[in-house]
Amino acid sequence: MLIYAGIDEAGYGPLFGPLTIGRVVLAIENADPGRRPPDLWHELRIAVCRRVSQRRGRVAVNDSKKIYSRSTGLNRLEEGVLSFAALCGHCPSTVEKWLDFLGETVHRDLSDLPWYAPSEEQPWELLPCACTDGELAVARGMLRTAAKAARVRVVDMSAAVVFEDRFNRMVKATRSKAAASFTFVAGHLNAIWDRFGSDDPIVVVDRQSGRTHYRELLQQTFPDAHIVVEDESDERSVYRLDADSRRMTIRFEVEAEQANMPVALASMVSKYTRELLMARFQAWFHRRAPHVKPTAGYASDAKRFWQQIQPHLAELAIEPDKLRRRR
Q1: N or C end of the chain: which has fewer CB within 10 A?
Q2: CATH code, 2-280
Q3: What does pTM read for this prediction?
Q4: pLDDT tens, residue by residue, 213-250
Q5: Helix crossing, 177-196 with 164-174: angle to 10°?
């Protein structure tokens, strides 16, 4: 059996909204841990494809940027994410239960961030919110049949949600957005090590920025492990961890979601979670400043939103550092 995991994020660059870092862990019964993981798009091809245009009733799995756009909406991203969540026995019916399923707890106290907090005027949304119950039922059924035939199981799905205030505190403390983000990647790596280390898992992380050397960061994360550098090139950085009866291979790869389905799924989980929360953000501000066009939080559009919303911050009792992220 091969334990094959992926880690990816959504929302690293925006000025508004949470940073989300997801992980997905698959168990492949017929795969050898000592070999390269199989092509799961091929193994699950009767139910899964790479492109939305190729669907023909199948679930599209890819980098979230290729599944979701503001013009096409959330439905195909939601269909894929919730179908795979059902493979590990979870069918969350609200956004709150989705966050609970992911193991996140920060949504339990959002008193300082009312644009996300549940209230009488804005309760937690029902799921699914974009695709239909019928579409989701068909997708879940097809995926369940394909996964059973290929002997593939989803054994873990999780995400860290880093809201603006926490993000700002961490960037201020570390003086590095990348260091703050890696804190949560390290948390996911530790969770996989603790639960699956005896199964010799392969973990693939989508590599951000231009970093190629991770040994020192990994040694800080796993102080008791012996770490061997297997590759540090422009395309990938590969490390072998060994400690007592536990072993793990960690691969930081450029565009990792293109060749590794767990990374693509982690990208989709992260983006789906961020978009659910951004919908709450946008609705809250639209009710209070209806003349201000909502923002997705990215680049020039975020600067426009910031200029327009700033005059309202005092009347809304909002501290700027709890709303706008540090660069």
Answers
A1: C
A2: 3.30.420.10
A3: 0.95
A4: 999 999 999 999 999 999 999 899 999 999 989 999 99
A5: 100
